[in-house]
Amino acid sequence: MSKVWQVYLSGEIHTDWREQIESMTKAKNLPVHFTHPVTNHENSDNCGATILGNEDKPFWFDHKGGKVNAIRTRTLMRDADIVVVRFGDKYKQWNAAFDAGYAAALGKSLIILHAPEHRHALKEVDAAALAVAEKPEQIVQILDYVITGSLPVK
Amino acid sequence: MSKVWQVYLSGEIHTDWREQIESMTKAKNLPVHFTHPVTNHENSDNCGATILGNEDKPFWFDHKGGKVNAIRTRTLMRDADIVVVRFGDKYKQWNAAFDAGYAAALGKSLIILHAPEHRHALKEVDAAALAVAEKPEQIVQILDYVITGSLPVK
Amino acid sequence: MSKVWQVYLSGEIHTDWREQIESMTKAKNLPVHFTHPVTNHENSDNCGATILGNEDKPFWFDHKGGKVNAIRTRTLMRDADIVVVRFGDKYKQWNAAFDAGYAAALGKSLIILHAPEHRHALKEVDAAALAVAEKPEQIVQILDYVITGSLPVK
Amino acid sequence: MSKVWQVYLSGEIHTDWREQIESMTKAKNLPVHFTHPVTNHENSDNCGATILGNEDKPFWFDHKGGKVNAIRTRTLMRDADIVVVRFGDKYKQWNAAFDAGYAAALGKSLIILHAPEHRHALKEVDAAALAVAEKPEQIVQILDYVITGSLPVK
Amino acid sequence: MSKVWQVYLSGEIHTDWREQIESMTKAKNLPVHFTHPVTNHENSDNCGATILGNEDKPFWFDHKGGKVNAIRTRTLMRDADIVVVRFGDKYKQWNAAFDAGYAAALGKSLIILHAPEHRHALKEVDAAALAVAEKPEQIVQILDYVITGSLPVK
Amino acid sequence: MSKVWQVYLSGEIHTDWREQIESMTKAKNLPVHFTHPVTNHENSDNCGATILGNEDKPFWFDHKGGKVNAIRTRTLMRDADIVVVRFGDKYKQWNAAFDAGYAAALGKSLIILHAPEHRHALKEVDAAALAVAEKPEQIVQILDYVITGSLPVK
Amino acid sequence: MSKVWQVYLSGEIHTDWREQIESMTKAKNLPVHFTHPVTNHENSDNCGATILGNEDKPFWFDHKGGKVNAIRTRTLMRDADIVVVRFGDKYKQWNAAFDAGYAAALGKSLIILHAPEHRHALKEVDAAALAVAEKPEQIVQILDYVITGSLPVK
Amino acid sequence: MSKVWQVYLSGEIHTDWREQIESMTKAKNLPVHFTHPVTNHENSDNCGATILGNEDKPFWFDHKGGKVNAIRTRTLMRDADIVVVRFGDKYKQWNAAFDAGYAAALGKSLIILHAPEHRHALKEVDAAALAVAEKPEQIVQILDYVITGSLPVK
User: Cross-referenced InterPro entries, in alphabetical order (chains A, B, C, D, E, F, G, H) (predicted)?
Assistant: First the structure.
């Protein structure tokens, strides 16, 4: 029975890069199980206060949410063989970089996905990665190669 | 194949909070496998002496039992993704707090469940938790959110 | 150069058991460095809010304090060879039991110090310990034996 | 012989927050050894190419530098008892967030230092911290409390 | 889906204690998977030389065998939740005691099975165990209790 | 349900030793799942540049490939119970020796397969192994013995 | 400043092998700090009951002692770079073999010292060792070589 | 008190690269403690047989030596912050590559030193390194930068 690779897709939640990776992977029939943080931005912000009680101070409102999200994200990163972190064009994305550091310290295989213009700002993060890619299809090509040994035909 | 989350329910054994959590989780069809200490109080007290031989001194009677229980509790906590610890209204419940410390040191996601009046006495324990709840349904809501990303409709 | 043993004294803060242990150890000239949580109860309660800003809600007031205390306690427990946890007569003392669990999971040599009447309530905690004592002088005798091999003359 | 606490000061390198913390700590005579990344921005950018040979492609120029810096930063973070990460007002600061994640996964005591306006963007990072402060003097007050048990007089 | 407990049965290979435990466990329908060293004494002695080439010197003959056996025993002990070690009446049985130490250092739940007359010689080994039993049926009773919470009816 | 042993076959990729081991293991019906690096030499060399973009400098061309290969090899070695490393007659084979060191530090059961003439050059590597064999059928005999206890009939 | 090697001398306590090793090491001026279990047999037997209170049942008398001894032995083994275990001619010496297994699982460099006639009984233990010696002076020669690179002149 | 960096210099033993690095480091007054394998080739080959008894079979002669050397090399690598591995022009140097893999799995900062012509053969090894250098002075420049932040003046 072949191994099912556990791949955690961290970072940017405003484009459909995860769906692209998942559908291309499915099309290739690769044995991969993808996991990711909650990508519904509103739920991700509100989860702590909605479940555990509202807070007047925004800090504690966010704190409760940040911790509830950590239950999911840290568990799934610990389960992962590979952690892919995508940095997008907007927002601070400090939680993406946090995840990259967390995964690196756990010894996970780290892949970073970002546009070339973020090269300099991400140099310490990229330095911890086993691959730095620009497009979702490269992630799928890496998975295909890593699992089956096949490379895309040029 | 989706992950089955391993959730250990530690602590108070005199109310039906575990059954509540388990039945609500089942109603939502969430992929969770619950484990817990032996909740039959009498068996939990007598297990060591019943199996391994009676003891005159109460200390050794209890010691044998405490250790046999540890075979179960430590194994299941090590297997767990999430450890929920409930503090009730009665008894010292030092084994509940011990479990919380044990789970924290193992890096487990810790959730503490207790009534507001224990806030101050539990401040060091709560400080190690990723969520502090008051009611069993909140545990189920956390599990639902953590696994599916859904929040309760207000 | 002889090893200096690191011994963390956790738990009850309302009697002078730490001072007793420390002075008897000093009298025997044993190479032990003792550490302990902050034992000024008021400071221990107020540290978070005093330094990081006051909170209206008691939960967050306590939460900030619990976490600042954890910076000290977890660091010193990780540094320790031996963790001694004393359970006294008053209060819930859940943080003492939490420390015992934390130390046990880190594989520290655990010694529990308590009056006989807490035997049953502490059975799971005692089961994780390498010694269960009733009086501070027994802790010093253990340290003396463990370090020098000497036993008290009867 | 008292413990010398190892404190790593990560993050923003364009203000004198490190010097402030170090001089206030020295004034209080606290047994702390501070470490930090190379804070000479130009050297930090150029180190890889200067030592190991120049690169035409900016990506590899940066990559060499990012890795040489990692020799220092990861070693010192592993040595640390406490990792303080400061987020400033400018730049992406992804390496600061990476360090926070790295330290969190190693189980270090994490303290985050940032202005209130970054609260929301840092919520996942703050959720992993044992203290969130706004000003350098608070870091020194935490160190003072954690090491000596003293709180600032109000 | 219920957990299948992994139980490694180490030690004495000249009586049928393993078969007794396995058949009683099966009769109770407990979800346990038992593993053990190779119990064919002759094969266990000869495995190294038979496969990897004969040796004139008895030391190397034995050395090759000891190492090939370690491939099995260390892997299965690492997989185990519980390690049971039985000391019999004959032979030095140093490999049994070695296994007990190995399992203890890995943090496995250790159960020791021996006749009362070996009490004193095994005191350091017993001190690392969570249960000390005399008869195979006690092992099965422990497994039953640990897995289902049931105790034998008196 | 019997354990499926995970065996990683590292090293030389120019002869059919893996196929021999796999087919003999299959003939014996042993529960083993074999994994290995990508053995298509050309793909193994080109994977980085093909997927992540070409490089003018051979060092970076190779570097990208070496890292993409590491995603596969380190994950599979971490999953393995046993790591077999074969040294052949040609090439430097430093990656084979690297894998042996990597596996040894992870505590894997290491088996080295090489011709007698490499004895001296491999002495430090062999010293870390639990078996040193010369022929693929010996690997299968070890697996058979380790899993079933059977030895080849002489 | 040169490293002081930590060497734990476990096992047989009825001959002067430790003194021999220590005096020869001192004569060579090697930077070694030796540690060992309590070698006063009577104290080692009585320590638990003398300090923590007498026991009627021999099992608990021994149990208390075994655990108090473990505070010393496990701490010192964890501190050690090298663990030497000597098997003598008398007694069961199961605690020696337990220590060898404990040290092996911690990844310590293990050296076994025994007379040739115990070869077969110790084959699994020897298989985990980096050296198997017969005489105390060989231990000192190993330490000399390992620390300074010098070999005895033949 | 400033940290003394522990740097292990592994690999090629037939040129004076270690002496060059050590003397340049001393000239710069950097707080570095260097360690290395035994570099007396003859002693390194003979250590096992000389101390532990001669062997007729070359395999066991070498095996004893390889293991005695491992006592030194694995201890010192575990102590190291940085492991530098140099590949020279002659011999198989499999033990150098083994050390690189061992250090990588322990999470050490790895620096590889080799001439450009070994680029392709070392690509998997280089891929695990934080720096790849060609000359001893570059190692010293890295140490200088990593410890003091200074770069060589161009």
Answer: YtoQ_family_protein
Q: Is the dihedral of CA H135, H139, H144, H149 positive or negative?
A: positive
D115: contact with H, CB 8 A cutoff:
no
C-beta neighbour count of H122 within 10 angstroms: 25
pLDDT at F154: 67
Task: Determine, yes or no, domain membership for F62.
Answer: yes
H106 to chain G, any CB pair closer than 8 A? The answer is no
CB neighbour list of residue G81: distance below 8 Å, 6 or more residues apart: G5, G6, G7, G108, G109, H75
pTM (predicted TM-score): 0.97
G1 token code pair: 């400043």
What is the number of domains present in chain A?
A: 1
Report residue E92: phi and psi, to 5°. -75, -35
Q: Tally helices (H) and strands (E) across chain A.
A: 6, 5
Which chains does B contact via 3+ CB–CB distances below 8 A?
A: A, C, D, E, G
For chain B, say whether C62 makes contact (Cβ under 8 Å): yes
Q: Does G1 touch chain H (CB under 8 A)?
A: yes
* Chain D partners within 8 Å of F66 (Cβ): none
B106 touches chain E (CB under 8 A): no
* D134: in domain: yes
Mutate to test the interface with B, among E2, E79, E130 (most CBs of B within 10 A): E130
Q: Do B94 and C62 touch (CB under 8 A)?
A: no
In-domain check, residue D153: no
**pLDDT one-digit tens code per residue, H77-91:** 999 999 999 999 988
| Rounded CA separation E85/E79 (Å) | 15
The structure tokens 């203890």 sit at E104
And the tokens for G43? 């104290």
Residue D65 at interface with chain A, using a CB cutoff of 8 Å: yes
ipTM for the predicted complex comes to: 0.97
Is the pLDDT reported for residue B1 higher than 80? no
**Any residues with CB less than 8 A from the CB of A24 and at least 6 apart, and which?**
A136, A137, A140
Q: Do E and A count as touching (3 or more CB pairs closer than 8 A)?
A: no
- Are C126 and B63 within 8 A, CB to CB? yes
Q: Read off the pLDDT of residues B53-105 as tens digits, 9 standing for 90 and up.
A: 999 999 999 999 999 999 999 999 999 999 999 999 988 999 999 999 999 99
Subunits adjacent to chain H (3 or more Cβ pairs under 8 Å): A, D, E, F, G
In terms of Cβ atoms closer than 10 Å to its own Cβ (0-12, 13-18, 19+), residue B29 is exposed
Give the residue from chain G lying closest to H72, CA to CA: G146
Sheet holding B109-114, edge to edge: B32-35, B5-11, B82-87, B109-114, B131-133
The C-alpha torsion from D47 through D52 and D57 to D63, rounded to 10°, is -60
Q: Which of H145, C127, E125, F129 lies closest to D70 in space, CA to CA?
A: H145
* Min Cα–Cα distance to chain D from C118, Å: 30
DSSP state letters, G91-151: S--HHHHHHHHHHHHTT-EEEEEE-GGGTTTTHHHHHT-SEEESSHHHHHHHHHHHHH---
Phi, psi at G34, each rounded to 5°: -90, 140
> Can you tell me whether residue G17 is helix, strand or coil?
helix
- Residue B153 inside a domain? The answer is no
Contact list in B for residue G60 (CB cut-off 8 A) is 57, 60
Domain that holds residue D75: 5-148
Indicate the residue of G81, G82, G149 with minimum beta-carbon distance to H40: G149
* Dist CA D152 CA D144 (whole Å): 9
CA distance B24 to A106: 34
User: Do H151 and D43 count as a contact with CB atoms less than 8 A apart?
Assistant: yes
Cα–Cα distance, F80 to F7 (Å, whole number): 5
